């Protein structure tokens, strides 16, 4: 690895040896590991105490727990009311339950 002319950004927390070439990575490290300068994302749903350091985690929480922002995929075979949140699960279901060849 070549480090000529590289400015290293090191974590200043006691005993931490983390260092990176990118200042943004250091900021993320300090937030993830030490809760320094964290921008918390709280779930706005009633009676939910969930919060996350990452907006993508909040989005996943809202989809998985509250069904918000979810596209549902339903099995269309006669007599089935099977629904799922991920299209790949529908493809697996169709292949396993109905022996339908699915192009992945």
Describe this structure in words.
The protein is α+β, with helices and mostly antiparallel strands and 104 residues long. It has 3 domains: 1-37; 39-69; 71-104, no CATH class. It is built from 3 helices and 6 strands; from the N terminus they run E-E-H-E-E-H-E-E-H. The protein has helices at residues 23-34, 55-66, 87-98; strands spanning 9-10, 19-20, 41-42, 51-52, 73-74, 83-84. Strand 3 and strand 4 (51-52) form a beta hairpin. The radius of gyration is 22 Å and the shape is elongated.
Summary tags:
two-stranded antiparallel ribbon, 3 domains, single chain, alpha+beta, 104 residues, 6 strands, 3 helices
The global form is elongated
Rg from alpha-carbon coordinates: 22 Å
Q: Element order, helices and strands?
A: EEHEEHEEH
The number of domains: 3
Strand and helix layout:
Blueprint: E1 9-10, E2 19-20, H1 23-34, E3 41-42, E4 51-52, H2 55-66, E5 73-74, E6 83-84, H3 87-98
Antiparallel strand pairs: 1-2, 3-4, 5-6
Quick structural summary:
By secondary structure, the chain is an alpha+beta fold. The chain contains three helices and six strands.
